[in-house]
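Quick start: what a row looks like.
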Amino acid sequence: MRVGAVVIRIIRQLLRDKRSIALLIFAPLLVITLVWLVLDGDPYEPKIAAENIPAPLEQVLQNELEKDVVQMSESEAKEAFQKEDLDAFITIKNHVPYVLLEGSDPTANSAVMKVIQTAFSSLSDQKNIQPDVEYYYGSDKINLFDQTGSVLIGFFVFFFVFVLGGISFLRERTQGTLEKLLSTPIKRWEIVTGYLLGFGLFTIIQSFVIVTYCVYVLDIWMAGDFWQLLVVTFLLAITALALATLLSAFANNELQIMQFIPIVIIPQAFFSGIFNLETLAEWLQVLSKFMPLTYGADAIQEIMIKGKDLADLWQDLLILFGFVLLFYVLNIFALKKHRRL
């Protein structure tokens, strides 16, 4: 009888928590659907340019690709690499096929080499010829972790800052600290600014530790400047903190903060650059544009793999700053419901 009473109490408690019931049912469906959408995409079709290659080789390459083999010089190909408009360039140097890979995307690299190997194997006079392969970005020594590590840095910074920031701000409410502040003449924007700066100091320290460990201990490929990587990581951390404080205003306990993870964090992981978005449906590519981690992870990867500077990444940084500003303003309005009239 006493066991039955406990069971009934738990059931009634869960039934009253509509958010937990919804999460229990719909969150797994959401995550599985995202996995299906990402992994069930079309095969990646590489964009290849060529100059002065034999007509039979060009014809075979053309047959292997849905896109046309573009004719351009090596210097034009390098400009296209910088604009992310090309995956590989092929020409003949010293009577040997020469392949220049863009190099920053393992999916594109693999697709290019598969097409080239198939093309050479189909030509009887080229079967035993091994092309000379070079990388415009990165190196053939870069492994899978080097390629994805830059994205994972952004994801883990965003994830842990979101969790710790959301729970910390929630405790300010549940312990009555926020309510006492709101009963004073202090303005809402001053509270939001103070909390973001206060908690932000610790998120910056956390970000510094994660980045330093990944670059200098795990020895992830690092082509850019360390301090520029820190700037992007700090901005991404502040974005996560502002979002966490905003969503914590709608949570009543720490469990409900964790319930936002399958809805807010996991979808961003799928669209942050771990998987090539060009293989996905167009509407999914558009959806990724509304996620802060898309821009933060892209900027981190550009610095680490391609060695770019902050000036080259001004669009990503501006959009991230825009997210911070948006969440900051929404935080001010969210505090309004907690202020006693």
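That is the whole record. The CA atoms of residues 45 and 65 lie 7 Å apart. The mean pLDDT is 81.
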